[in-house]
From TrEMBL, chain A:
Record gene name: HUS1
GO cellular component, one term: site of double-strand break
Protein name stated in the entry: Checkpoint protein
InterPro entries per record: DNA_clamp_sf, HUS1, HUS1/Mec3
Positions in coiled-coil regions: none
Native source organism of the sequence: Zalophus californianus
Pfam short name (any one): Hus1
Automatic annotation (TrEMBL), chain B:
GO biological process: cellular response to ionizing radiation; DNA repair; DNA replication checkpoint signaling; mitotic intra-S DNA damage checkpoint signaling
Assembly and oligomerization: Interacts with HUS1, HUS1B, RAD1, RAD9A and RAD17.
Family: Belongs to the rad9 family.
Organism field: Zalophus californianus (California sealion)
Annotated Gene Ontology cellular component terms: checkpoint clamp complex
UniProt name for this protein: Cell cycle checkpoint control protein
Keyword Phosphoprotein among UniProt keywords: yes
Gene that encodes it: RAD9B
Amino acid sequence: MKFRAKIVDAACLNHFTRVSATIAKLAKTCTLRISPQKLNFIVSDKAASGGVSMWCELEQENFFSEFQMEGVSAENNAIYLELLSENLSRALKTAQNARALKIKLTNKHFPCLTVSIELLSVSSSSRIVTHDIPVKVIPRKLWKDLQEPTVPVSDVSIYLPVLKTMKSIVEKMKNISNHLIIEANLSGELNLKIETELVCVTTHFKDLGNPQSDIVRNKIIHFDLLHEDVSLQYFIPAFS
Amino acid sequence: MLKCGMSGSQVKVFGKAIQALSRISDELWLDPSEKGLALRSVNSCRSAYGCVLFSPVFFQHYQWSTSVKVNENDSTTSNLNCKLGMKSILPIFRCLNSLERNVEKCKIFTSSDLCKVVIQFFCRHGIRRTHNVCFQESQPLQVIFEKNMCSNMLIIQPRVLAEAVVLFTSSQEEVTLAVTPLSVCLKSSSDEPMDLTSSVYSEMFVGPDEFDFFQIGADTEITFCFKELKGMLTFSEATHAPIAIHFDFPGKPMALSIDDMLLEANFILATLADEPSRASSPPSLCLSQKQKRSDLMCSTNNNSKTGKNATSKAPGCILRKAAPKRLYPNETQTDIPALENCGSPIMKRVNEDISEVPESSVSNTEEGPGSSYLSFLACSLEQFLLTSDNTSTTLLTVWQQQVTVKRT
């Protein structure tokens, strides 16, 4: 198994760092799937993470100037690594003004993802920073649990309002109640509601578009974030 | 007796010094002298010592006088001998930015008669805040460390060190500084075998031209406590002065110091020694009470007189090899028979008989870990020092696997 990749563009590096930071906020451990064309961050549907699962996909050529990988075997040309998402995020954050960033799979007493950063410094010499992030190689027999989840047929599909607004509303609601009720219909209306013994607060959003798509049973809420070269799908099981 | 005053911006630097020293231990010695006001701190396992000496020109005004005690035929001058708890003094110097803005003048005064230090802040709008902090009478310990004798010295701007320190998580306990004549590397240090949950190993190579001064005698790698380095770093950022790092080989203490016109700060940290197969090492930390400063010197006294009624007891200190390798104090000091691995019994406890001139010494250990493990000595020494009175000078010397404790 081999993996080595390099990022030289500052904007790509920044973007990759932000994706990694987002993953770190969503899940403590995640699986990194490396394949010839893509990089995936996967959090699978286990009880440990509260039933939440996530699938994030990046087209490798949008980020890396060099990308070489060799999977487990020719037929199974992929590598699945388990790591603590915080470790990768923190390592990437130290690469703020890097000239170049290299990532490779190494085995120094233990399999590691080695992030090697060449930093610009005030003086002429550059500084080299290396981080060895411990990873666990996931054996092939467990790969079937880590496939892209099929999006079930949906009851309602709706475009969310401006995320910043939603974020500030949900954050305030978090202080009042642990459960959030989401109501949406095919007329572009969305309600975020919390109910407690003392108070009931609802925020109404109107005129949101409904994409032409499938219907889902109201068992799972599927958030699909599409942004330039990254797609992130996040599944939250509902209580009722 | 001490009486000094400073302005708001000086209070900030003073407070930063206290905060840096609080990373070393929970106790602070306030030690005024004609050279200025020294703040000292030693950690419980004697693996770290910090001293910040503010010269009289740092203050707006500085007055110090010793009190003279007439004692039988002698009259002796005694210093302040003031030991404060960090828990009492640290909260006073919290929120340094707001102190800098609001405080117009700060006065600190004390005398030996009242066992308290009074810190007064004269703030804007006519507000005056007074803190009375009680202190314990205790002679400060001082480390004698010839930093200029170290073969390796680096001077670096605090900003560069801060950029390196950011790589490591706050849970990182120890870091290693590895130097060669061509490069300097700061890296995380960990003994445990790696697994998925262990922390990330990080390292940063810095070229010699990033240093203000670069003198490396030989390739060396020293490992020391990260927390204490961070403490010193935040202080140096407040003073904007470059940090000098003096060090030799593993096991010998290292010094981090700041030297400018107004103050002198020294943080002496123990470093992890190599495996016991090393040859014995020359004197490392020398602790002494500071009664007569002119007398302080490291001698190579190898007399092996043992004190009467000496009992051998394993001191309850944390010692490398017997306990997990640590340079920082544990929550609870456990009584580990720390010298199991050392072959022969090391320390004989001196009887507290003041009429004699007791001496105790350490017998040679053929294959012992060498004289760099001073933590065990220091704990036994503390017992010994507490019994001394103000008229004596106590000298501890460590040389070639022998330890001599002498009281004159």
